[in-house]
Amino acid sequence: MINFEKQFSNLLDYNPTTDSRLRTLRTQAFERFIKTGLPTKKWEEWQFTDFSVLNKEKFRITKDIDLPSIPEKIPAKLSNCYLLFFINGHYQSQLSQLPEEIVISSGNDYLNSNPEAFLIDNQLLQWTSKTNPFLALNTSMMNSGLPISIAKNATIDKPLQIIYLTTKTTDKLMNHPRFDIHIGTNSNATIIEHYIGETETAYFTNAVTQITLEDNACLDHVRIQEEYEKSHHVGFTNYNLKADALLRSNFISSGSLVCRNDINLNLNAQGADTSINGLCVAKKNQHHDQNVVVNHSSSACQSDQLFKYILSDSASGVFNGKVIVDENTHSTNANQSNKNLLLSPSAIMNSNPQLEIYAEDVKCSHGSTTGQIDIEALFYLQSRGLSKAKANQLIMKGFVSDIVEKIQETEAKSYVDFLITKQIENFLLS
Questions:
Q1: SS (H, E, C) 187-249
Q2: Is residue 413 part of a domain?
Q3: Percent of the chain whose pLDDT exceeds 70
Q4: Helix runs in 37-77, H state only
Q5: Which residues pair with 318 in a beta bridge?
Q6: Does residue 81 fall inside a structural domain?
């Protein structure tokens, strides 16, 4: 923890003119982080994920000197999208292209004038800081990100792609981005949140995304994590859905040595509806951990979850899923499913789907399956003239296809399909 204390002190010294409210906010959050410490294997919801390397590595918070030249070609940029581009934690406003219905503020200016606006509400912050110290760490050290607001009654004609690129690093850097996204009443948008690494130096990304959907708003949210394989990636995504809001969310994870995603979904008003899906593909010694909590706190709400993993070599995965249905709610429909494919005897999967139901008028289901490639299916395809490698490829592509197909935006779907196909080909070569 000594290095985190040093970096926090450096951050405050680096921004001596920061608004006193923000300094107080940072200090209080950091004190919570130090008091709680990093998760250990004694913590039930973190017991399979080891973060001890974060204390061993001397990650340095990014400064202006870490801004490289802008690449001629921005990696993973989709052609038919509006763009918000970050490189090594630095927002590149000159490359942004936004319609008038999307309003952003300068991150530093916004933080200094409205520090409380970057907080997830105090109750949630206090609660999660006990079980997720990375949220408190992000609040104390948030050094990038933006507030993003979409006006009411707006239909955004193209997806908004947020690219968070780490590249050309020589030091072991860390960044703590905070995105605060607000979708106005009756509005419709697609947001692609993309984390990518092009460096061979280890780094640490600790990202928090807060998304609020007002009444009758609709959002397609695709989060892609393809960080460098020696990096550590921690993400916390918090959704708040109001009356008749519709959320379609897809989490795709293929990079990082250790990846932990916490997804907190709050159905706060009648008629809120969500489909939340995830796909993790991991090889070698990668470890991917997904923790999903869906809170049904109002009546006539629906949630569907489908999370899949493909694990090869000595890779490991964790799925913790919890659906909570509050008392005094009715007409709740919640489905949760986790399916896993292990390609090697040394691959390990830990799955723990849960239901907490305090009401009677509900339809809820959950389940988990873990297995290997079906030998009979493999034999059948080979009997039809396919090579063993091609047959395995088809089976794996079939396994992930329903996740990929849930992505509504065409270019994003094509990119994810390309990314996963490349990973499957790597599996077959290893």
A1: CEEEEEEEEEEECCCCCEEEEEEEEEECCCCEEEEEEEEECCCCCEEEEEEEEEECCCCEEEE
A2: no
A3: 93
A4: 53-56
A5: 289, 350
A6: yes
How does DSSP classify residue 131?
H
Calculated CA dihedral for residues 77, 172, 1, 350, nearest 10 degrees = 50
Domains contained in the chain, number: 1
Q: What DSSP element (H or E) covers 376?
A: helix 375-383
Please indicate, yes or no, if residue 57 is contained in any of the structural domains: yes
DSSP state of 297: -
Residue linked to tokens 């982080």 = 33
Separation between Cα atoms, residue 304 and residue 366, nearest integer Å: 10
Helices and strands, number each (H, E), in the chain? 9, 21
Determine the Cα–Cα distance for residues 287 and 151; give it in Å rounded to an integer: 39
Task: Please report which confidence band the pLDDT of residue 123 belongs to, taking 50, 70 and 90 as the band edges.
Answer: very low
Beta-strand relationship, 173-175 and 204-213 = parallel
- Residue among 339, 210, 312 nearest 263 (CA): 210
Q: Residue 395 in contact with residue 178, Cβ under 8 Å? A: no
Its domain, for residue 163, covers: 2-373
Contacts of 63 (CB under 8 A, 6+ apart): 14
| pLDDT tens track for 330-362 | 999 999 999 999 999 999 999 999 999 999 889
Who's near 165: CB < 8 A, 6+ residues apart? 74, 75, 85, 86, 87, 88, 196, 197, 198
Placement of tokens 């959320």 in the chain: 247
In a domain, 393, yes or no: no
Residue type, 211: I
Cα-flanking dihedrals φ and ψ of residue 184, to 5°? -70, 165
Tokens of 144: 């990038």
325 Cβ contact list (under 8 Å, min separation 6): 296, 332, 334, 355, 356, 357, 358, 359, 362, 364
Sign of CA dihedral 104, 82, 181, 68: negative
What are the tens digits of pLDDT across the range 202-243? 999 999 999 999 999 999 999 999 999 999 999 999 999 999
